[in-house]
Amino acid sequence: MSFNRLYWEDVTEGDIVPGVSLELTRDRMVMIVCGTRDIFPLHHDLGFALASGYKAPAAPIAFIQGFVGRCLTDWTGPTGKIRKIGLVLNSPNYQGDTISVAGKVIQKFVANGEHKIDCEIAVTKQDNTVSATARAIVALPVRSKSRSHPLQHSRRKEDVA
């Protein structure tokens, strides 16, 4: 088995974070509930979901956040280390939906001795509705710490304030 191994030098601001898709089948929803331990009936019980005003059971937010993480680590490989994910849920992801997650690199920077990338990520449904957006910071390995990098001493705009 081989894994992708993305290095900081290989990334350019504006690069695409390749997508991952999956269908939220009934079986998958039950596995999600078991995996997240979020047994609230909205996530697995059709009758409860309908009585609560939803059109079907809805995936837990923790799963959506994990799906964003999977997209990032599928791209970076096991040496990419997720440092932060901030997620905003716009609408539920229902049983029966096919959801996809993809994004782009917004910024490269070095902070706290790590070479990092800042990514914008979107979770979309089969009808192209954006059900969630996220910002993620990922630390990546460098090919050689002895090489000088043009952004080595740069700081993120948010870190300067």
Can you walk through the features of this model?
The chain is an alpha+beta fold and 161 residues long. It has a single domain, classed as Hotdog Thioesterase (Thiol Ester Dehydrase, Chain A), CATH 3.10.129. It has helices at residues 26-36, 46-51, 61-76, 157-160; strands spanning 16-23, 81-89, 98-111, 114-125, 130-140. The chain is 23% helix and 34% strand. The longest helix has 16 residues, at 61-76. Mean pLDDT is 89; it is low at 146-154. A 5-stranded antiparallel β-sheet has the order 1-3-4-5-2, covered by helices on one side. It contains 4 helices and 5 strands, in the order E-H-H-H-E-E-E-E-H.
Helix segment count? 4
Which CATH class is shown? Alpha Beta
Strand order of the biggest β-sheet: 1-3-4-5-2
- Return the domain count: 1
Spell out the CATH superfamily: Hotdog Thioesterase
Oligomer: single chain
How much is the radius of gyration in Å? 18 Å
Runs in which pLDDT lies below 50 for 5 or more consecutive residues are: 146-154
Mean pLDDT: 89
* SS content category: alpha+beta
Strand fraction: 25-35%
Order of helices and strands: EHHHEEEEH
Distance between the termini: 44 Å
CATH architecture: Roll
Short description:
By secondary structure, the protein is of the alpha+beta class. The chain has helices spanning 26-36, 46-51, 61-76, 157-160; strands at residues 16-23, 81-89, 98-111, 114-125, 130-140. Strand 4 and strand 5 (130-140) form a beta hairpin.
